[in-house]
């Protein structure tokens, strides 16, 4: 049985036959009224075996369709007839030989002049290849997702407006956010002020790791827990086409542990260096001490024997003054090498700080300075060599003054350490800071950046020796172009704490 098409549709069977995929036309009862050449060729059947048959019969017998009988309500043919719009169904079909393929059956209505469905045209497209590509794509996506999620480094991506697009598990842990709750935060909020802009500037800079790339860089990040964490990050801009920036991505590694290790190592290096310099200093000091005693003794004897108006009086005075300076240096060297005797006394840290300030000979140095004293209200008793501790404070204060403009600010602050075991003193200036390359050398004997005659470079090394002798610590707590803070810590004298609490 052949479909009798109206006259004006006569050209359509030609189009129908030329379609490159199997196609059939059914009436509204599901009876096949026409099939195209491609369908006959593909399924090796005769037209007479399909025309007049129901679509169910055809699919069951000819196409091994396992889903038959199909359900009325899900049948795309019924839906197309009922709604007058096209529908499709995707099926995986197993051939008799066991191989599988995917078919996309697309049903389109043919309408009469009044818009009623009179026939339905069904095209059968083999989409096995597309489906296979889709599966590959899906697998790649799953794999990529696993790859990103399983990375030990934190990975984060954001769109151009800073909205977070991706956060792997390590990033959730590092930043302290759950990705599902990041709708209200911007990637800018994850850095201290100005850092995100700085990173974008470097990313766009051709000379900084190449366009769109940020090589390993140390930055601080801000976590949801309110911490500032130092990280090493690399970054990239993701482009669409050549120039359109669509997103940014960053890979982050927490470097707190690494920095702590480096710190411990450099402290170890520093104390080893101090120990060997100390031995050297002690040796030199002892060797110089004996001839120096001789020079001073015989010099003084000569001076006494000379008439007061003797022409060599001035020379011998200079010799004795210089020998005295040498003795002072030797004394300092011995203090640094911790070979000079110490006396132990119990005293209040605050009182000692006040006393040291009074002992500074040239009080005019403080004239234009702002001196802030933030001394702890708590009584902090320590047991140490009081005179030598004054010497330490005086040297730190003098260094601070030397580093500042005459109208700088000097701050002295005392407090107890969190563990209540140490008395702490911070001396802060608003000076020019200590350059990185000098930081490890300032405690070395004779290291000075001051003009000749202005500094011997023994102040900090002596202070170091004294503090170590008293079981304390002295470090640069902070330094930069805004100024420097030295921190001195001495063990609190717990005996006196107990005595005080009993009293
Ligand atoms: N507060 C500070 N700000 C900047 N630099 C400092 C500060 N304190 C110390 N320094 C640097 O450390 C160097 C060593 O200091 P140190 O006290 O040992 O010697 P000095 O002050 O140069 O000489 P001396 O103390 O023997 O008179 C100084 O020359 C200076 O470069
Ligand atoms: Mg000094």
Give an account of the 3D structure.
Mean pLDDT is 89; it is low at 498-503. The protein is rod-shaped. It has 14 helices and 17 strands. Helix 8 (256-305) packs antiparallel against helix 9, helix 9 (313-336) crosses helix 13 and helix 11 runs antiparallel to helix 13. The strands form 4 sheets. The chain has a 5-stranded antiparallel β-sheet, sandwiched between helices. A 5-stranded antiparallel β-sheet has the order 7-6-10-9-8. The chain has a 5-stranded mixed β-sheet with strand order 12-14-15-17-16. A hairpin with a 5-residue loop joins strand 14 (409-416) and strand 15 (422-429). The longest helix has 50 residues, at 256-305. The chain has 503 residues and is of the alpha+beta class. 39% of the residues lie in helices and 26% in strands.
Give the key terms:
single chain; 503 residues; alpha+beta; Beta-Lactamase; 4 domains; five-stranded antiparallel beta sheet; 14 helices; 26% strand; binds adenosine-5'-triphosphate
Write the layout of secondary structure elements.
Blueprint: H1 12-18, E1 23-27, E2 32-35, H2 37-43, H3 55-62, H4 76-83, E3 87-94, E4 100-111, E5 117-126, H5 128-150, E6 154-159, E7 164-167, H6 169-175, H7 195-204, E8 213-222, E9 228-240, E10 244-254, H8 256-305, H9 313-336, E11 345-348, H10 349-359, E12 370-374, E13 381-384, H11 386-403, E14 409-416, E15 422-429, H12 436-439, H13 459-469, E16 473-480, E17 483-491, H14 494-502
Parallel strand pairs: 12-14
Antiparallel strand pairs: 1-2, 1-5, 3-4, 4-5, 6-7, 6-10, 8-9, 9-10, 11-13, 14-15, 15-17, 16-17
Helix pairs in contact: 8-9, 9-13, 10-11, 11-13
The structure holds adenosine-5'-triphosphate and magnesium ion.
């Amino acid at each position: 049985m052949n479909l009798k098409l109206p006259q004006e549709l006569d050209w359509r069977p030609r189009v129908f036959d030329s379609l490159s995929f199997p196609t059939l036309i059914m009436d509204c009862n599901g009876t096949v009224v026409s099939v195209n050449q491609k369908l006959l060729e593909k399924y090796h059947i005769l037209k007479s075996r399909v025309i007049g048959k129901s679509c169910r019969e055809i699919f069951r017998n000819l196409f091994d369709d396992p889903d038959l009988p199909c359900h009325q309500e899900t049948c795309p043919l019924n839906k197309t007839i009922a709604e007058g719009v096209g529908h499709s169904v995707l099926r995986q079909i197993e051939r008799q030989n066991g191989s599988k393929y995917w078919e996309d059956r697309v049903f389109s209505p043919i309408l009469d002049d009044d818009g009623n469905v009179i026939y339905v045209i069904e095209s059968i497209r083999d989409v096995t290849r597309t489906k296979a590509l889709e599966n590959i794509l899906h697998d790649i996506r799953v794999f990529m997702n696993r790859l990103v999620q399983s990375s030990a480094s934190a990975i984060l991506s954001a769109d151009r407006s800073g909205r977070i697009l991706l956060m792997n598990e390590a990033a959730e842990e590092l930043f302290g956010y759950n990705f599902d709750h990041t709708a209200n935060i911007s990637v800018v909020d994850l850095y201290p002020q100005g850092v995100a802009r700085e990173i974008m500037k470097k990313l766009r800079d051709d000379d900084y790791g190449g366009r769109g790339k940020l090589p390993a860089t140390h930055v601080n990040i801000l976590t949801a827990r309110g911490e500032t964490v130092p990280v090493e990050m690399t970054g990239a801009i993701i482009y669409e086409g050549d120039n359109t920036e669509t997103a940014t991505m960053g890979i982050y590694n927490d470097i707190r542990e690494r920095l702590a290790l480096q710190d411990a190592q450099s402290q170890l290096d520093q104390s080893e260096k101090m120990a060997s310099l100390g031995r050297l200093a002690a040796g030199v000091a002892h060797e110089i001490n004996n001839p120096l005693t001789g020079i001073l003794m015989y010099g003084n004897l000569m001076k006494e024997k000379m008439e007061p108006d003797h022409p060599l009086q001035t020379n011998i005075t200079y010799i004795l003054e210089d020998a005295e300076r040498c003795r002072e240096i030797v004394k300092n060297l011995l203090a640094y090498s911790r070979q000079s005797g110490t006396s132990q006394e119990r005293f209040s840290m605050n009182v000692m700080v006040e006393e040291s300030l009074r002992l500074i000979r040239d009080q005019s140095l403080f004239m234009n300075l702002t001196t802030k004293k933030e001394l702890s209200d708590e009584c902090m008793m320590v047991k140490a060599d009081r005179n030598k501790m004054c010497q330490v404070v005086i040297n730190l204060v003098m260094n601070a003054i030397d580093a500042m403009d005459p109208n700088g600010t000097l701050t002295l602050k005392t407090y107890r350490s969190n563990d209540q075991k140490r008395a702490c003193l911070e001396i802060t200036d608003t000076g020019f800071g200590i350059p990185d390359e000098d930081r490890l050398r300032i405690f070395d004997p004779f290291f000075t950046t001051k003009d000749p005659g202005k500094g011997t470079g023994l102040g900090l090394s002596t202070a170091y020796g004294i503090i170590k002798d008293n079981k304390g610590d002295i470090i640069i707590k902070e330094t930069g172009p805004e100024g420097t803070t030295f921190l001195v810590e001495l063990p609190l004298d717990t005996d006196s704490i107990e005595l005080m609490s009993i009293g």
